[in-house]
Design a protein that fits this description.
Number of helices: 1
Largest sheet: 5 strands, antiparallel
Oligomer: single chain
Radius of gyration: 15 Å
Mean pLDDT: 88
Order of helices and strands: HEEEEEEEEE
């Protein structure tokens, strides 16, 4: 199975802070997309993520179809391997889906920038032949 294309050197990581460059380069091989895997079958994996204020989940790779639902209101910041940064306000019940494949995947982290715990449920699906 192919994976997202890794940048041709750490300089491609854009404005990633120097202390995070190695982590983001390694993120192409980090498929832990939550803080705890709670269920796995041959076709899907369910993750929970709990981030206290100020906590951050390390850079990780999304390269399979998945969706997340946030269970709490809060604020977060994601840094992406290309150096872009996105600040997000979450409302309990927000859900977003991604129809990804190894060639369209991405690497990012998530930091809780709010004052309350962020809680997510994420379901990732195995890619099957059509």
């Amino acid at each position: 199975m192919s994976r997202p294309k890794q940048p041709d050197g750490l300089t491609v990581l854009g404005d990633i802070p120097p202390e995070l460059r190695a982590e983001f380069a390694a993120g192409f091989n980090n498929h832990a997309i939550g803080t705890r895997m709670v269920h796995q079958t041959g076709t899907m994996t369910v993750w929970h993520m709990h981030l206290a204020p100020g906590d951050r989940i390390a850079a990780h790779c999304h390269d399979k179809p998945y969706f997340w639902t946030v269970m709490t209101d809060g604020f977060g910041r994601s840094r992406y391997a290309d150096g872009s940064i996105v600040d997000i306000e979450y409302k309990a019940g927000d859900t977003k889906s991604f129809d990804l494949a190894p060639e369209t995947g991405f690497v990012h982290d998530l930091e809780n920038t709010g004052e309350t715990e962020l809680v997510f449920v994420t379901v990732e699906f195995e890619i099957t032949a059509k």
